[in-house]
Amino acid sequence: MKLSPAGKLIRLRVLGVCISLALSAVTKVVLAAEEIEFNTDVLDINDRKNIDLSQFSRGGYIMPGVYSMVVNANKDTLPEQQIPFYAPPDDPNGSRACVSRALVEQLGFKEGIVKDLTWWHQGECLDERDLKGMEVRGDLSTATLYLNIPQAYLEYTADNWDPPSRWEDGLPGLLLDYNTNVQAQRRLHTGVNSYNLSGNGVAGANLGSWRLRANWQANVNSEYSSNKPLDWTRYYAYRAIAALRSKLTIGDNYLDSGIFDSFQFRGVSLASDDTMLPPNLRGYAPEVVGVAKTNAKVIVSQQGRILYETQVAAGPFHIQDINDAVNGELEVRIEELDGSVQVFNLNTASIPYLTRPGSVRFKLATGKTSDWRQRSSGVLFNNGEFSWGVSNGWSLYGGVVQSKDYNAASLGIGRDLMILGALSFDATQSWAHLPELDRTLSGGSYRLSYSKSFDEYDSQVTFAGYRFSQQDFMSMSEYLDARNSDSRASNNKEMYTITFNKQFRELASTLYFNYDHQTYWNRPTSNRYNLTLSSQFDIGSIRNVNLSLSAYRSRYNDTNDDGVYLSLSLPWGRAANVSYNTTVNRGDTTHRVSYYNRPDDHNNYQLSLGNSRGGGSLSGYYNHEGDLTQMSANINYQQGQYSALGINTQGGITLTPNGGALHRTGIAGGTRMLIDTYGVPNVPVRGYGSTSNTNAWGKAVIGDVNSYYRNQASIDLNKLGDNAEARQSVVQATLTEGAIGYRRFEIIAGEKAMAVITLADGSVPPFGATVMNTRSQETGIVNDGGSIYLSGIKAGESMAVYWDGGAQCEIRMPTPLPAEMLMNTLLLPCQSASTAKIRAKAEQVSK
């Protein structure tokens, strides 16, 4: 919050009075009641009898009533809720916070502790005095209830992770997320214009703990007449089953398996959800790595359904935000503007199947296989998998897939090798009957997997695996292809895969390597590797020079696609750089000089001049992260060949009974948080590295929210306007998958000014009286002679003045307000009003 010099001076004067009170007061403390007696002789005021310090006479005293408070439990922030304060039976003049049964359920007490809890106030409130070491304290200045609970009473927690008792299902609501691409191109040698419109996204609704979702994808191309503009590719509903740490899904789905290959089906599944586990026990999401020769469109799909689509600038790219529920083989397609296309397959891999000792993880599914257009192929099946933590370090796992003409069984063992990493081995046997070919095939497949993080060497083998399959072994997806086409399109033989990264801290360098090798019994070998080495160093007075080298090879359908990318970047000002890079592939070499700048947190752009065998080229790339959407645009010109324009937008809309907003998105259809600032617009709200301003109704949606993870949202105080104050700047929430979380920031918005409050008889309110607005927000404390520094002033708005335990009168702000507020002193007569009338008005506005 920023203050003018006058405001700072006023705050210093008020602070000085408070310090004087604290240092000069002669106190008489009665330990049972924490009563404090003030020596008012040290106060420089005219009328020492006209003082109301009742609210300060007891340390932490809060008048009995019901208050909206954020709960801070061991520094973890829980949702805002109504907290009653009652006078305890043994102290009629005291006040004590009521920790309700509903709040206790959110605190995560162990089951054995919950059985022995005791209660007071007709069994409504927890008696924390029976839990040795637990402390409860309310603070009206921050609207927070502080709970200090010994960890021995609570369930297991980890950094940024909460137990299920604190998970929230969020608000009911509707959402629509989208990712659209527009590309227009003109072939210079023919004069032919073409365009392509494509997109995908998720529409959905949240009802309690249920998430209803529908995935869509669209494509319109001017060069093809047989376009189907819109396809709904998946309809499904899911919810969390917290007691089983699992996810129940009904409708169109992919088999989520750590053992068998993935395939599409329509039915029901119940599976242990790794995202519900602490972060150090979760799996890895797939990562797509490649190099684009030009500004290109990258499409990641699985069995015809588009999972991810975006436009990237020329050079290396890493796509890391694909949903970690994706398993099996992915197809990656890079469509270059010069008409060339790179296609390669990526085998997503998971870490070895390890389970905590004594725990069991499971996956169950039943239904009928289908394709991405929801056409059923008519195969009813059942699937079951398990992983059992036999002992400390050993896990046993296995599973079956059962249908009329296809069956498979697998059994494996995993071992935590401690400092040597984690290793697993499994064997799978399949039996497939093909009526059309009048054949029954039976074969085995064997897999060895390994992962290890070498912290002492700053390196990590994210995944390494080997798999061998006999010629007559068939996965379910291979069986379905053979059943539908009367032939085997794919017959896997051997697969090697490894992902490795290494940091050289002394050299400020990083090495990344990915290798994927697949052989087949009936088709050519497929290979894909990518090696990237980047380094940062200084050249004389030039600091932070970056050098990057990427090399890749992709062999697909007996064709090699090799490439090398070299880039040298030098800083140019505060957030800009100039770079030279060269790309070598398929017999062509491109040289490019670029200028990159990031003028602020929301915008960046790049301009490039290039030359290749085809002639000179010009390209530009611009990216904007707005409050409503994320947008990128690119323009390209290749001498004598083509000119092109591309635009990509990503965003969504979320609507709830508490309001809604247009916003940027993270994972389409995923978890998000609605932020409410009491109707105050243009409040900067920060999520994970991105900032959005609240809309005209004081709402913003943060889309980069992780499921089952303690997420934070905060007010960027450095960008908060002068006429707004944040009573709290950080909130937290742990949300179930797909939830629409809700948090409110108490913002006092309005002008600030010095004022003098007078009563009807010419006297003034007592020193220490408080002023509250219609939202029960404290806007000032009365000083000597009725003077007060007021915040949150709005033309025509009323505020109540409290002393002697209640609202005594009401002041109304002038209309219009003076032009120079801090240069004027407002004279505010306080008209008598009943406490009930003022409270009723405050409650009405609050509702």
From TrEMBL:
Its main location: membrane. Residues 1-32 form the signal peptide. Gene3D superfamilies: 2.60.40.2070, 2.60.40.3110, 3.10.20.410, Outer membrane usher protein FimD, plug domain. Residues 757-812 form the PapC-like C-terminal domain. Keywords: Cell outer membrane, Fimbrium biogenesis, Membrane, Signal, Transmembrane, Transmembrane beta strand, Transport. InterPro entries: Fimb_usher (IPR000015), Fimbrial_membr_usher_CS (IPR018030), FimD_plug_dom (IPR042186), PapC-like_C (IPR025949), PapC-like_C_sf (IPR043142), PapC_N (IPR025885), PapC_N_sf (IPR037224). It is found in: Cell outer membrane. Residues 37-181 form the PapC N-terminal domain. Pfam families: PapC_C (PF13953), PapC_N (PF13954), Usher (PF00577). It is a multi-pass membrane protein. It comes from the Bacteria. PANTHER family: OUTER MEMBRANE USHER PROTEIN, OUTER MEMBRANE USHER PROTEIN YFCU-RELATED. NCBIfam families: PRK15284.1. Belongs to the fimbrial export usher family. This is Outer membrane usher protein.
